[in-house]
């Protein structure tokens, strides 16, 4: 795993587009543009965006997490959210996605974040020890299925009495692709 460099942006766009083509289960057609918008987010951290490369040093995977805020009437705190993960179709089911998630979790833990969240309609994050966030009274402000709002505490008790709603930055949102 490597931290993304600006020279990686164009090949990463290709990997994202390849990974999400043909209406993959977790796609809305905005993934490439969303990643590009999030790089201008005030809390964006390049070390929270990683690429995986093959033996020929070609980018075959990409993952991005961003700080997001959990707010309730009583408190506010940041967690990080994995907002995009993609692996080129020829390299899927080889553990690349899982390795990128583990790398991002390690970076989040080293940065002192209490948890990593993700929105996912498959069992990928469940297999990586994420649980529905409502187990900790943490809910998404996005219109998603309750079981798709996943979270993984990074330390015992890190989410104790910390419920609230996860708020994403405006850069996360954009015009959704409605073309078929």
What's this, in brief?
With 180 residues, the chain is of the alpha+beta class. Helix content is 22%, strand content 28%.
Helix-strand pattern: EHHEEEHEHEEEE
Structural class: alpha+beta
Which descriptor suits the 3D outline? globular
Task: Please work out how many helical segments DSSP would assign.
Answer: 4
What's the end-to-end separation, in Å?
34 Å
Mean pLDDT: 89
> Over the alpha carbons, how many angstroms does the gyration radius reach?
16 Å
Main beta sheet? 9 strands, mixed
pLDDT under 50 segments (min length 5)? 175-180
In terms of DSSP E residues, the strand content is 25-35%
Q: How many strands?
A: 9
What is the helix content? 10-25%
General description of the model:
The chain has 180 residues and is an alpha+beta fold. Helices cover 22% and strands 28% of the residues. It is built from 4 helices and 9 strands, in the order E-H-H-E-E-E-H-E-H-E-E-E-E. Strands 1, 2, 3, 4, 5, 6, 7, 8 and 9 form a 9-stranded mixed beta sheet that branches. The longest helix is centred in the middle third of the chain and has 15 residues, at 96-110. The N and C termini lie far apart (34 Å).
Strand and helix layout:
Blueprint: E1 2-3, H1 9-20, H2 31-38, E2 49-53, E3 59-71, E4 76-87, H3 96-110, E5 115-119, H4 124-127, E6 131-132, E7 138-140, E8 149-153, E9 164-167
Parallel strand pairs: 4-5, 7-9
Antiparallel strand pairs: 1-2, 2-3, 3-4, 3-9, 5-8, 6-8
């Amino acid at each position: 795993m490597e931290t993304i460099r600006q020279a990686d942006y164009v090949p990463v766009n290709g990997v994202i587009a390849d990974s999400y083509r043909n209406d993959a289960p977790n796609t809305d057609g905005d993934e490439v543009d969303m990643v590009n918008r999030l790089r201008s987010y005030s809390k964006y951290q390049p070390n929270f965006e990683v690429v995986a490369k093959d033996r020929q040093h070609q980018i075959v995977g990409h993952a991005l997490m961003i700080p997001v805020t959990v707010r309730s009437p009583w408190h506010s705190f940041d967690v990080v959210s994995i907002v995009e993960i993609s692996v080129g179709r020829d390299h899927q089911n080889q553990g690349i996605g899982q390795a990128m998630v583990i790398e991002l979790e390690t970076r989040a833990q080293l940065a002192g974040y209490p948890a990593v969240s993700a929105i996912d309609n498959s069992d990928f994050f469940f297999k990586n020890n994420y649980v529905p966030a409502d187990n900790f009274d943490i809910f998404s402000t996005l219109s998603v299925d309750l079981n798709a709002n996943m979270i993984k505490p990074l330390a015992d008790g890190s989410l104790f009495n910390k419920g609230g709603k996860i708020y994403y930055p405006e850069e996360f949102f954009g015009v959704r692709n409605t073309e078929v």
